[in-house]
Queue: 2 jobs
Job 1
Amino acid sequence: MSPRILPARRCGHKFTFCPTHSWVMMGRMNKTDLSLIRNFSIVAHIDHGKSTISDRILELTHTVDERDLSSQMLDSMDIEQERGITIKSNAVRVMYAADDGNTYQFNLIDTPGHVDFTYEVSRSLAACEGAVLVVDATQGVEAQTVSNANLAMNANLDIVPCINKIDLPSAHPDEVKEEIEEDLAIPADDAVCVSGKTGEGIHDLLEAIVYLVSPPKGDANAPLKALILDSYFDEYRGVVATVRVFDGVMRKGDRLKMMALGDTFLCDGVGCKRPLETSLDELGVGEVGYVVTGLKDPALVKTGDTITYEDRPCAEPCPGYHEAKPMVFTGLFPIDNKQYENLRDALEKLKVNDPSLTWTPETSVALGFGFRVGFLGLLHMEVVKERLEREFGLDLIATSPSVNYHVYKTDGSMIEITSPQDLPDVTRIERIEEPYLKAKVIVPPDFMGAVMQLVIDHRGETRDMVYLSEKSVEMHFDIPLAELILDFFDQLKSRTKGYASLDYEMGEYRASDLVKLDILLAGEVVDALSFIVHRDKAYDMARALCDKLKEIIPRQQFEVPIQGAIGNKIISRSTVKAHRKDVLAKCYGGDISRKRKLLEKQKEGKKRMKSIGSVEVPQEAFLAVLKVDDE
Amino acid sequence: MGVGALYVHVPFCRSKCAYCDFSSWATRAGDPLMGAYAASAARMVSQAGSMGLLRGCRTGYLGGGTPTYLGADVLGGLVAAMAPHCPSELTVEANPDSLTDDVLDALLGAGATRVSVGVQSTNAAELAALGRVHGPAQALDALSRGVAAGLDVSCDLMCATPLQTDESWERSLADVLSCGIGHVSVYPLQIEDDTALGRRYADGDPAFNAEDVQAARMEAAERALGAAGLARYEVASYARPGKACAHNRAYWTGVPYLGIGTGASGMLCAGDYAILRTAAPRLPKAPDGTWRVRLTVTSGRRAFAEAAGMGDLSYDLEFLTEQQAAAEDLMLGMRLAKGVGEGLLAHARRALGAQAVDAAVAEARREGLAQERPDGGLAPTRRGWLLGNELYGIMWDLAPGTVLEASA
């Protein structure tokens, strides 16, 4: 017999956890029966209404008042809201008084939405038993509906189909149900029809979650076993980790241990987000919440690690942990070298909440002092660069991304390099090995050919493929990481009209015929423009890059030849023509101020460029390698 | 004391050209606003005269817009008000379609010495593409009649315009030269935002206006005009000996000038600005250390027409220090064929420091933008003509600090 928790609407307070009645609820919540817990995430194609439905759930369960509901409550970082992507995982607890008379604890887990964060996504899904699959009643099943449903089914989640926007005149829910059954092989007879806009059907959705999503399993008396989904740094409390408890109980004062990294700490408090942080006496089995570790070093708390008791550890950690290693390395240089120290400080500040960031100092002849920074992927790089520029007022140049290569030298030693500049002279290289990924793509059979071609174009090898149903094929292939980081994911999405889902894990290192492609401006090698490329692709790449740089670099006072070279051999060439005319001839009735302001504007423009020798090079030139496939 | 040049602006046109972002408005013929505006401008000229501001004035320029669109009577009145203050030269801008015989007579009668005719091209299709309201024959006729009337005649031509070819450009140059004029101004079309052309080509620079085309046409103009005896004396200006525009040269040689009219710009020394303030109390006191003041009238054409005097107008202001003014003088001087003389350089060295000025001169020479004159001054090279902004930028960079601005 489960205790009934008084919903907030009866006591009139803002939160279910009302200040007046909190003692009642806290006492009872600690004993929440596993059968009264539902852990789930919401997945959808873009714009099918994931955020509005999340908001409605918070509202209907009185987790937040209507007036406090800023839309998209779960995406908190500015850049996340601006770009409409989720970077950090987030878990919000809501209490739902169901029609069966019980009050259920729902943990709504928001997952990152980009391939750079594949690992984080997999950890977040591992914390769920179910997923609400939202489909737009006017659009039907679309590409990301398929790819997200595949991710959720791969994680063995119970799927709650939900058809949204039924208030629209063009809604055709019955056809959408058929599509869900046919395209996704998910029974949709009981799909819930809702309108995130009017709130209609949200109650039914909550009921469906109660009945369709399995309650968590676990042993309350076993040693603690809690999975870390995410973490952030709090200046006063140290690292705060979001966790899912699989076995046992976590209380303030417990001596705890990170199983993979081995560090121990005293639990400084537990709680959950509603969506504001609310402290609890304990986090019990099956629950999702946060734990205050008191650890001052964010690097000690890793997504995917397992927290257990120091003196009574669980037998096995949660499966699937691996350290989120940086995959992509780029040089970050301040345009103004005086900002070098500021850049270091800014990186240190960002790392506090983004422990996956790594860096080492790097020196470039062309760009001066900077850092070689490791990222999870290119989106991660863009987000970090944008935050450094926006939040810390830095003007930065990012150089071509690289992976971590293993260079075997003729003297028998091996060095790891992440920057083309560190590549030894070609006569001292025995072979170069590059990291490969084991990638998995799930895609409708119609797009199989397109994916295979894309894999071949990116030097990958298809290993095998399995029909999951008539509507979907799972393809496995090995592909060099260096190929995947550039534009593989974008091209995969565009060539499969968005239907493909991609998942990957690190594979082994393999020897490849790699060369360093140098770029010369006005006859001088610009080290910051060099990059490592497969010999078969070097010629095409060199030509494309010279052409792209010709577009990006503005005319100068003199002609600037741009050359691509391997060693001493020039393999491509283009020329930025000399400026021929740059003068404002017209005199506007003696308006000299106007002429002077034009000169000042031109000077400002030049400040944002980097002088390489006598050539003024704009920031974007250093990332030209990412743009050669734009056409 | 006193300004050396007087500029009056007439912001009215029959229609707005496709490239034009000057202070001008398409206005119905005979709109009484034009008469009221011209009368107000004439009153302000008299006001400036009675305040002593025009005591040293030598040249005048009535620009626009289209001054000849005012019609013979109104135009004649305004020119007559300016003429007493412009003993060496008084230019009136004209459009071919409104430079009628009675307008010409009025100009001569009122004391104008020079007309500058906006021809732009002698190709009918090119003129239409620019939104010009006149045809080639009308344009050439206007030039010839101006010459026949005994005025100094100048002609504006525009290059790198829609439909223009190398051949049609040569043709336009030859056509206007055949009229016997002594002065030609050549401008590459500048596509500005907020113009019809700017909107049409918002996505990017069209091929007809490409930098290489502009450069080639400017050089073709220099060759053709030079061969006809018109030497380049300023970036955009060519003249037979003795026919250079004295008023234009005042702008580039640091001669103070007074600007009257909507959008008109002026430049005053600190002393004259103080005199102007006695008539215009709303103008702020010049900050300490002000050497030179640049002002642009921001009152609209109706407000200008209704104003009792210069004190009723609003202005944008810039206050330059002696150092800034010295750098500006070098910047402006480099637009002229003769460049800057030894005296100006010596003054700049005193004001800005010999080392800084010498370094700038050395940079300009190293970049091939300027060369030493036989008499010790500095003059632009061929390269310095086409890459003028580089050269002027080097000089203006000498100016310390930022120019103080104000609106009143």
Job 2
Amino acid sequence: MKYLIKLWNQSKVVRYRLDDLTTMKSTVFSVLGSLVATTILVLPLYLILVQLFMFVDIHIVLIILLFVLSIIAVFIYEYLMYYISGLIEPKIKKLYTKSLVIVEGSIISLLFVVVGIIFVVIFLQGV
Amino acid sequence: MKLTSKVKTLFHSVIFAYIYLMIALIVPTNFSVTAPNQSRSANTMITIEGKDQTTHLKTMSVLSMVRITGFARMLYELNPQFEVEPLNYVESTLSGYEMGLRGVIQKNASFEQSLISAYTLAHEIDSSISINYNLIGMIIDYRSPEYDTLRIGDIITDVDNQNFSDYETMGLYFINNNGLLKLDVLRNNETIEITIDKTNEAIFRFYPKYDIISAQPNYSLPGSRSNITGPSAGMMYTLSIYFALIDFDLIDVDIAGTGTIRYNNEVGPIGGLVQKIYGAHKEGINHFIIPASHYDEVKHLSHLMHLYPVTTIESAIEVITNEILN
């Protein structure tokens, strides 16, 4: 718990400092660049998994794998976003952005998991 | 942005492989696939209120997909239980939306026909069971692309002002007459008049569309919310409703089956029978009722389970009561 609180506080500090170091243009560039890179990395795996849904025996395994892949994709996106921001503004490289990646990645993944569970429950009811 | 030489080398090396992989994963081919699916109790699709409806009568569906990708084709062909084949004429002329719409039309038609057939048969045993319905017309399940003034899902309520009262006469009139036909069409609750120039080569496929006014005992259709579509469970719906209506509670083994229910109580042909038998076999089901017209194509699988070919719903009832339960 102590570690989590420390991580949360650290991420808030890093966030304030990042706001000073980034511009709207660099933020848009890093977000779009990260989105494209994450899509390139993860899309083939998604497409392979989706096509495996014809095998009815492994539906549950595939659903779990899709959840895991979505969470991995979120963390890759977060990491790449701050990596690209660092390439645009070298001062960002010196910041401890790892704490931001963990905190923001966890929040977004949690949101994904909740939405995913609702979607899966609706999907399974309809089958 | 500086890229290290390792990243550059990696990029050079994998870019073509990546592009080829993405083409294989995204670009559709002119092939479709049919794969085994799980069974589902017929009583989860149509429920008769106040009746104890058996869970042992199972419908078998298949998973199917048209225009699969190259990667999917390679993957599915490795599995002998899957059937990968070129798109048939109907699939190649319809969009994905129209294919989905057809599935829903077929499912609703099989709900209506199975209710009418089962209630009518049960009425012969118990006169307190009744169903009150009207024929609205013929719902279009397929029409050749050149007749695009008609849409899939349109209901033809009359042809050449003949005022038909039954589906068979109306259908035969439509099939047997070529040239200009004046159609009264119900589309989005509005009646419009469409004239078509029908030729011998025209392909039309219809289902009867009924308005079920009332039924005693009442029924509900939980299956209308299901993702499962198509007409192939019609026979099993009819059997499930019929046995519930006559309070027949002796069915104590799982019986799967597939086949459409037609307006004259015949059991009609279906697709993906081999995959349905594999699906039932995986679940340990030993009795499978099939349309007689398909028996030759699956008799080599009779070592997996007992196959019972039937031609009508009456013969399916006989098979269950006289052969399977004995």
